[in-house]
Amino acid sequence: MRGVKPIRRKKISEEIVEEIKRWIEQGELPLDSKLPSEKELSDMFGVGRSSIREALSMLAAARIIETRQGEGTFVRKVDLSDYIHPLALSIVAKKEQTLHLLETRKIIELGTVELAALRADQRDLKEMKKALIDFEYQLEIGEAGVDADFAFHRAIAIASKNPVLIQVIDSLSPVMKQSLTYTLHQNIGNLAKRRSVLQEHKEIFARIEKRDAQGAVACMRRYLENVRKKLSELKE
């Protein structure tokens, strides 16, 4: 068939990366634990050391592991700078780290939504409304709605007319989307919960549209607090 791209087989090193990531995600290699040596990994995977070295280089570039002189290779403890690298995202976006990000979002988004309520113009309101329509459609057809949800929050940041806040939201976009994926996927299969999240977003928008800054802050605070409660109840 025309337009069909050939399937690209994964390199051996990429498969090794995926397996080591799985070990970390499942707790077989806890944070700050030491990895097996190159020789041990080579024997375990049944591959040459060059493939092992390439895989370890990829993990190091993603800031997932680090080499300590005279000690060996260890799983790194994650920090905010790790969130930006796509390879690290699947490890970062777990319950504890998502809760930490939620605290950060609360600090940023409460101030952002207050400014948006005071400064939003018709174009901003149109973008927020479009994001809500997209969000509602995605939820109704059973999708998580991650992109539309993020688009709504970014539209609020743009409406703040503060270029620093917009840049902060944009710099956090990879991890925010990963966090939204983690939280919104908990609602897949539960239409009532999905509609509840949508309604919270609509209430935030209604307050912004009415230029009710205090009301917008209260709605955003309530929404973020509800997310925190739902996350706290989840098992890893």
What portion of residues belong to β-strands? under 5%
| Tally of discrete structural domains | 2
What is the arithmetic mean of pLDDT? Answer: 84
Runs in which pLDDT lies below 50 for 5 or more consecutive residues are 1-7
> Biggest sheet: strands, sense, closure?
2 strands, antiparallel
- CATH homologous superfamily assignment of the largest domain: GntR ligand-binding domain-like
**Spatial shape:** elongated
**CATH level-1 class of the largest domain:** Mainly Alpha
Overall SS class: mainly alpha
Q: Roughly how many Å apart are the termini?
A: 43 Å
Approximate helicity band: 55-70%
Domain HTH gntR-type: 10-78
Keywords: DNA-binding, Transcription, Transcription regulation
Protein name: HTH gntR-type domain-containing protein
GO molecular function, one term: DNA binding
Could you write a compact summary of the structure shown?
The protein has twelve helices and two strands; from the N terminus they run H-H-H-E-E-H-H-H-H-H-H-H-H-H.
Features:
236 residues, mainly alpha, Arc Repressor Mutant, subunit A, Four Helix Bundle (Hemerythrin (Met), subunit A), 2 domains, two-stranded antiparallel sheet
Give a verbal description of the structure:
Keywords: DNA-binding, Transcription, Transcription regulation. One of its GO terms (molecular function) is DNA binding. Residues 10-78 form the HTH gntR-type domain. With 236 residues, the chain is mostly helical. The chain has two domains: 12-75, Arc Repressor Mutant, subunit A (Orthogonal Bundle); 81-233, Four Helix Bundle (Hemerythrin (Met), subunit A) (Up-down Bundle). It contains twelve helices and two strands, in the order αααββααααααααα. It has helices at residues 12-25, 38-45, 49-61, 80-83, 86-92, 95-119, 122-140, 146-159, 163-171, 173-184, 191-209, 213-233, and strands at 65-68, 72-75. A two-stranded antiparallel ribbon has the order 1-2. A hairpin with a 3-residue loop joins strand 1 and strand 2. Helix 6 packs antiparallel against helix 12 (213-233). It is elongated. It starts with 11 loop residues before the first helix and ends with a helix. Residues 1-7 have low confidence and may be disordered.
